[in-house]
UniProtKB/TrEMBL annotation, chain A:
It comes from Trapa natans (Water chestnut). This is EF-hand domain-containing protein. The keyword Transcription does not apply. SUPFAM superfamilies: EF-hand. InterPro entries: EF-hand-dom_pair, EF_Hand_1_Ca_BS, EF_hand_dom. Coiled coil: none annotated.
UniProtKB/TrEMBL annotation, chain B:
The lineage of its organism: Eukaryota, Viridiplantae, Streptophyta, Embryophyta, Tracheophyta. The keyword Transmembrane applies. This is Phospholipid/glycerol acyltransferase domain-containing protein. One of its GO terms (biological process) is phospholipid biosynthetic process. SUPFAM superfamilies: Glycerol-3-phosphate (1)-acyltransferase. PANTHER family: GLYCEROL-3-PHOSPHATE ACYLTRANSFERASE 4, ISOFORM D-RELATED (PTHR23063:SF2), PHOSPHOLIPID ACYLTRANSFERASE (PTHR23063). Pathway: Lipid metabolism. Residues 169-280 form the Phospholipid/glycerol acyltransferase domain. It is found in: Membrane. Keywords: Acyltransferase, Lipid biosynthesis, Lipid metabolism, Membrane, Phospholipid biosynthesis, Phospholipid metabolism, Transferase, Transmembrane, Transmembrane helix.
Length: 204, 340
């Protein structure tokens, strides 16, 4: 899409300016959010996510946000996320929903900035830690890991089998069933290996 | 037109969602027999805890997914921000709203008056003479659709042989807007299978379209599907009924992409005649984004555009080849529609 500088960034569907004026005179609503994102807004959001996204990417993300947020409420609700079939099918969707449900645009971008190519490995490991630490007490227990594993491996394994594998693997790394892993433990475990967790924001 | 895939249950498959091959599979490391404490292979805590591939896919779906893309209205580029074109465009707006629109409303009103004054007597008085009544009702429905199309200055080019009334045949078409149905109905009266809508459209559905033999379904009822499937089968067998028209995509798509057909239409065991409808976007964007607009607004928007230009291709009827499943049949038809 080509926009000249200063032209409104609109995520409304096909309606020209006069049509919008006339229809609002007729007292009927257009039903779409033609809200504008100013240069100032973009810079503020960019600051908030530590410049991990370029300005064009933020504009694309805004269009995507407006597309998902159907009633222009300012945040995306859980069922709107689940209306994306590829998201609903993902085994970790419920876990992610806890983190993204009800976010406004700034926080939405901040969340997604972890998936930017420029984000540090530390940032990504912290997100993985937060996924496991569902009760947000700063510690990941054996049961926390089991819960996530259960969703990931689904019906392919029984709980006993999962427990056995996990106990063995923990032992190998020097932990026991009763250990609690902190975020520093996670850093140690992941070490210097490359975490490949990147998402490309389509910019047309 | 581009495509997506739907599997047998009608759910979308994202082709990138496969088990990662470079990540050690946890199931391979199940202990065998009693040697639980022996370290097996390369599975380490790091690999077990690493949920990054799955997270990446989920985030990728949040940022962009192919299914939602089919329902996005493609916004036009602003071409009139220019000192020469802008006044011309303003003049065009005045013509559209002040001259064309009232004229069209007038045509539509006249059409409705003629239709209702003929339909109601025919419906009530000829209760005993079923064949005659049906024939007349069919003609009248075609007439009102002609009026509708005229009210948007519809220019429709039909290509291919016109549909005929024969048993054991089903028509399938792609779906851009509710007006697809009207455009097709103008030429031949079809019986459609539709979602029951609220409001004045629902009223229309239960009175007038009932006479053409339409079948209703309610997406929210689970049992409804079986009832409808049975009705469909009975309808197709009958020789005297209007030809049945099904929109296999199930919903309005923006005419740039087609969503893969649901296989229901192809399981009825009869000849399938595909119809492809393509709208010319220069004059009006016929895509009805039902999530964003009500049907009334959509109609008003069409009536204030210059014209609705579309092409309708009646394609060659196909039957299920021996040994082909319903899904393969759907894919084959889908491929022939893609050529348009």
């Amino acid at each position: 899409m080509v926009y000249e500088a200063g032209a409104p960034f609109s995520c409304s569907s096909r309606h020209s300016m006069i049509d919008i004026v006339l229809f609002s005179l007729l007292g009927e609503s257009m039903g779409s959010a033609s809200s504008m994102l100013t240069q100032y807004d973009i810079e503020e959001v960019q600051e908030y996510c530590d410049h991990l996204f370029s300005q064009q990417e933020i504009v694309s993300l805004y269009e995507r946000f407006c597309q998902l947020d159907r009633n222009a409420k300012g945040f995306i609700s859980a069922d709107e996320f689940l209306s994306v079939p590829e998201f609903a099918m993902n085994p970790l969707s419920q876990w992610l929903l806890k983190m993204v449900d009800g976010l406004n645009f700034k926080d939405f971008v901040a969340f997604l900035s972890t998936f930017s190519a420029k984000a540090s490995a530390q940032h990504k490991i912290e997100l993985i830690f937060k996924m496991y630490d569902s009760d947000c007490n700063g510690k990941v227990s054996f049961n926390d890991i089991m819960k996530v594993l259960r969703d990931l491996s689904g019906p392919f394994m029984s709980d006993d089998q999962r427990e056995q594998v996990l106990i063995r693997v923990l032992k190998e790394a020097g932990y026991t069933k009763e250990s609690y892993l902190t975020v520093d433990d996670f850093f140690k475990v992941f070490g210097n290996s490359n975490i490949k967790m990147e998402v490309e924001v389509p910019v047309d | 037109m581009k495509t997506l895939a739907m599997d047998a249950a009608g759910k979308l498959i994202s082709s990138s969602y496969e088990l990662d091959l470079y990540r050690p599979n946890i199931e391979d490391y199940l202990p065998s027999g009693s040697s639980i404490n022996e370290p097996h292979g390369e599975l380490r805590l790091r690999d077990l805890l690493d949920i990054s591939p799955t997270l990446t896919e989920a985030a990728g779906a949040i940022v962009d997914d192919s299914f939602t893309r089919c329902f996005k209205s493609i916004p036009p580029e602003f071409w009139n921000w220019n000192i020469y074109l802008f006044p011309l465009w303003c003049f065009g707006v005045l013509v559209r709203y002040l001259i064309l629109f009232p004229a069209r409303v007038l045509i539509l009103t006249i059409g409705w008056i003629i239709f209702l004054s003929s339909f109601i007597p025919v419906h009530l008085l000829l209760k005993g003479h079923d064949t005659l009544r049906r024939k007349l009702e069919r003609l009248l429905v075609e007439l009102i659709c002609c009026f509708f199309v005229a009210s948007w200055t519809g220019v429709v080019n039909y290509h291919g042989p016109r549909p005929s009334i024969r048993p054991k045949q089903v028509y399938v078409a792609n779906h851009t807007s509710m007006i697809d149905f009207i455009v097709l109905q103008q030429m031949t009266a079809f019986a459609v299978i539709m979602q029951k809508h609220p409001g004045w459209v629902g009223l229309l559905q239960s009175t007038i379209l009932e006479s053409v033999g339409c079948i209703w379904f309610n997406r929210t009822e689970a049992k409804d599907r079986e009832i409808v499937a049975r009705k469909l089968r009975d309808r197709v067998q009958g020789a005297d009924n209007n030809p049945l028209l099904i929109f296999p995509e199930g919903t309005c798509v923006n005419n740039h992409y087609t969503v893969m057909f649901k296989k229901g239409a192809f399981e009825l065991g009869c000849m399938v005649c595909p119809i492809a409808i393509k709208y010319n976007k220069i004059f009006a964007d016929a895509f009805w984004n039902s999530r964003k607009q009500s049907f009334t607004m959509h109609l008003l928007q069409l009536m204030t555009s210059w014209a609705v230009v579309c092409d309708v291709w009646y394609l060659e009827p196909q039957t299920l080849k021996p040994g082909e499943t319903a899904i393969e049949f759907a894919e084959r038809l889908y491929a022939s529609a893609l050529i348009i």
